[in-house]
Write a structure and sequence with these properties.
This protein has 433 residues and is mainly α. It contains 17 helices and no strands.
Length: 433
């Protein structure tokens, strides 16, 4: 791997570490503000809202300048969001401040993945994604643990003993620590190499960007490999975001754990994802990526067995298994989606389309989960419905793939160097879109 790849990994690690620690701290903030339980999953909802709203623009933004600069600007926005959370006095102002952090994350994502396709050849993408996902999962583990540790009274009291100006509570000192970690990530962003890709934008009007984005969405959903990989990753990220909150509630009901301990079980799932991601990077090539789809069906079935568990060690084993299955099937599909998107439209545009679809899924599934909590549906019923939804959807996707594409088609399409001009080239050469 090129040296710049390791700088990208370091920047991603610290930014993701702060993201995941901040979610736990934000939940603690809502508890301090006496927010109702259904607002807890709304934290993730407002976080990903800008991913959807700004989807037509963040891809073009990521492609308009060197990716390292985009990532630096994005982390600066996250620090601003932390500052707004620090001064939040009401549950809805806390949600609004957390949404600003989501704004930074929305701008960050196309750059952090898009630079991989600029820096590395296609045959390195599965390996690179395995490393990035593995490191991201490590940051999820450590981030959720860090968030839980920061709100633990003995730790927060120790930090408050330093008597930092304007910091008086456990949540405030926790937000300060998270903002500092974002600053570390921003420093690494400054050292990410410029890949030499042409970053000029042919047009900058919002109407042009929306039209271009709509065209990119159509291209990816009509591509026979793109549509399958996009459907899988869309389901995975929606399910993953929802599972975070399901685990918190399940740990409270089944295992009688407080927030700072149940948050660490989210990290246990992430350990499994890391294991699955690393194994996928070693065992699955880009051409074999679609063969892992049945694991998505199995994952939904295994999730439903959570309702039978009351022992903490069995719970840990089960959550690692769920994470391992998810990581093993999503990493190859993510690499395939990146490859197809880069061929069809360019790295930044492709990731923006991916984020748009995946975060629409997160919004929809979190809304459904929040409604179930609002109507006081038991968490075991929620888990069964969630597992069934995952398995049935993956069965549909597998059937979809078998119907519209043979193995020979897959090999042919993967080998294609470029079957569509990119949107910018369509404009430059006057091709009718």
């Amino acid at each position: 791997m090129k040296r710049g790849f390791y700088t990208i990994m370091a920047a991603q690690f610290f930014s993701s570490l702060a993201d995941n620690a901040l979610l736990v701290v934000a939940i603690a903030l809502l508890i301090d503000l006496h927010a109702p339980p259904y607002l807890t999953p709304m934290l993730k909802f407002v976080f990903v809202l800008f991913y959807v709203i700004l989807a037509p623009f963040v891809g073009a933004f990521a492609d308009s300048m060197p990716k390292g600069r985009v990532m630096f600007i994005s982390n600066t926005i996250k620090i601003l969001g932390c500052g707004l959370m620090f001064f939040a006095m009401h549950q809805y102002s806390a949600l609004a401040a957390y949404a600003v952090v989501g704004l930074g994350a929305a701008a960050y994502s196309p750059a952090k993945y898009g630079i991989l396709t600029e820096l590395l050849p296609p045959e390195k993408l599965v390996i690179a994604n395995g490393w990035i996902e593995g490191l991201t999962v490590a940051s999820i583990v450590l981030g959720t643990v860090l968030g839980g540790v920061l709100i633990t009274p003995i730790v927060s009291d120790t930090l408050l003993a330093f008597n930092l100006l304007f910091i008086n509570t456990a949540v405030e000192i926790s937000i300060f620590v998270v903002a500092f970690i974002y600053a570390i990530a921003a420093v690494f962003n400054l050292f990410i190499p410029n890949t030499g890709i042409d970053h000029r934008m042919p047009k900058k009007s919002p109407f042009y960007l929306i039209h271009e984005f709509s065209h990119c969405v159509k291209l990816l959903w009509t591509d026979k490999l793109g549509q399958i990989s996009l459907a899988v990753t869309t389901l995975f990220w929606g399910a993953g975001a929802t599972l975070q909150f399901i685990v918190l509630k399940w740990a409270e009901v089944a295992l009688d754990l407080p927030l700072n301990q149940s948050a660490q079980l989210q990290g246990v799932v992430a350990v499994g994802i890391a294991i699955g991601a690393v194994l996928a990077a070693k065992l699955v090539s880009l051409k074999q990526s679609v063969k892992v789809i049945p694991l998505g069906i199995v994952t939904g079935i295994v999730v439903m067995t959570m309702t039978l568990v009351y022992n903490i060690w069995i719970a840990i084993f089960l959550l690692v298994m769920i994470g391992g299955l998810a990581g093993f099937f999503v990493v190859p599909m993510n690499a395939l989606l990146q490859h197809r998107g880069y061929i069809l439209m360019g790295a930044g545009h492709s990731i923006a389309v991916q984020n748009f679809n995946e975060n629409l899924s997160i919004l929809a599934m979190l809304t459904g989960y929040a409604l179930l909590i609002l109507f006081d549906v038991h968490i075991y019923v929620v888990i069964i419905l969630f597992g069934l939804f995952m398995s049935v959807t993956m069965i549909v996707i597998r059937r979809w793939h078998l119907l519209n594409q043979s193995k020979e088609d897959s090999l042919h399409l993967i080998g294609t160097r470029k079957i569509h001009p990119r949107p910018s080239e369509m404009h430059d050469h006057g091709i009718d879109k």
